[in-house]
Specification:
CATH topology of the largest domain: Rossmann fold
Low-confidence stretches: 1-32
Radius of gyration: 25 Å
Shape: globular
Oligomer: single chain
Largest sheet: 6 strands, antiparallel
Number of domains: 2
Length: 372
């Protein structure tokens, strides 16, 4: 009889065990879910689209070394105008390396942006298009392309997404100026900035030529700086300037204002032997004075026709070491584009195959300098 007296109590406890997890204990909140959602009232409409559109400036922006730019999606600060060469200033308007990180549970993701067209040896999707990746099991995976029109594009890049909170990475064009960028999501879905990276996980800074800028990748996320950024899950600041990466003293000063995990200087294909002799060592000295311990990686030219340039780079490297410059490293050119078939579009600028081979070649050097 005593047992039956306790039956109501037992049943009550059991009911609590069932109900409390459902109503009283909040689910674990991941770092992704903490970010503040964009106010739905900020959404706008685009003709012919059922998606709701939001200004990408309200999301997490990466790849900009300076905030005080003349226009929002520029790569150099406004103060550089009139100091750097005209070619560098003009090319700094191109959005190479700039990207947007955001979170959404929308099953469709669109983009609206201005600019279009392409060079005669580069796909428009790399020149003027967008490249979308999702974070899946801790790694970035491709999931959509923004295919550009001639002036302004409204395009659904990805459909049939999972419908759950997912982090995305969207690369802007490699060789195009962008003044407007909107992200489109389904009505009722949420949109928020992605969490900022930890302060100790500093960016990678690449300074170089048209190859650095991304010529001639078929998508804006397929040049080697972007690939390595995804593999190391770090922000990348791409300071590649087509035909104009020549290590002027003004660029050394600007480079010194940044605070990266690693500097990667790959300017040789744009420099004459005289430039290498005159500029390489002073350039490194300026950056090293501002950042006594940050590793600097000097990269040889991958082209066999520029062996004299590589020998001069080695000499500059050895001279700097003799001076006592520390944490300075040299990466050989031979092997960067190695493999069957030709990994270039024109004998010089890599295709996606060439860029992938470059990234594979660079990877162990970067691991040695900044870890995995």
């Amino acid at each position: 009889m005593r047992f039956f007296k306790f039956v109501p109590v037992i049943m009550y406890v059991i009911s609590l065990m069932i109900l409390v997890p459902a109503f009283s204990v909040p689910p674990a909140i991941s770092n992704m879910e903490i970010m503040k959602k964009i106010d739905p009232a900020k959404g706008t409409k685009e003709e012919g689209s059922e998606l709701v559109w939001f200004d990408a400036k309200d999301l997490t922006i990466e790849g900009k070394g300076w905030n005080d730019t003349e226009e929002f999606y520029n790569r150099l600060p406004a103060k550089a105008k009139g100091k750097v060469t005209e070619n560098v200033w003009s090319l700094s308007k191109n959005t190479a390396g700039i990207c947007i990180r955001f979170q959404t549970d929308s099953k469709q993701i669109g983009a609206a942006w201005d600019g279009g067209g392409a060079m005669n040896h580069m796909a428009a999707t790399g020149n003027s298009g967008l490249d979308l990746y999702e974070k899946k099991d801790g790694k970035w995976e491709y999931c959509g392309t923004g295919r550009p029109k001639t002036t302004r594009t409204v395009h659904v890049m990805a459909k049939e997404r999972p419908g759950k909170n997912t982090e995305y990475l969207l690369y802007l064009p490699l060789y195009q100026k962008v003044t407007e960028l909107k992200i489109g999501i389904e009505g009722g879905a949420f949109l928020s900035p992605a969490a900022l990276r930890p302060k100790e996980k500093k960016p990678l800074v690449f300074y170089g030529t048209s190859i650095t800028q991304g010529g001639c990748a078929s998508r804006s996320g397929m040049c080697h700086p972007a690939i390595l950024g995804r593999w190391f899950d770090r922000e990348v600041i791409n300071l590649g300037f087509s035909g104009a990466g020549k290590m002027e003293k003004e660029m050394a000063g600007l480079m010194s204002e940044l605070d990266p995990a690693l500097y990667i200087f790959e300017c040789l294909p744009n420099m004459s032997p005289e430039m290498i002799k005159e500029r390489m060592e002073p350039f490194v000295r300026v950056v090293r004075k501002a950042h006594p311990e940050t590793p600097i990686l000097l990269v040889e030219s991958p082209f066999q026709t520029e062996q004299e340039d590589n020998l001069l780079l080695k000499q500059a490297y050895e001279n700097l070491l003799k001076e006592g410059v520390k944490n300075l490293h040299l990466m050989p050119g031979e092997g960067q584009l190695a493999g069957e078939e030709n990994g270039t579009v024109d004998g010089v600028h890599p295709t996606d195959l060439g860029f992938f081979r470059m990234a594979v070649f660079y990877k162990p050097y970067l691991e040695n300098l900044i870890g995995k």
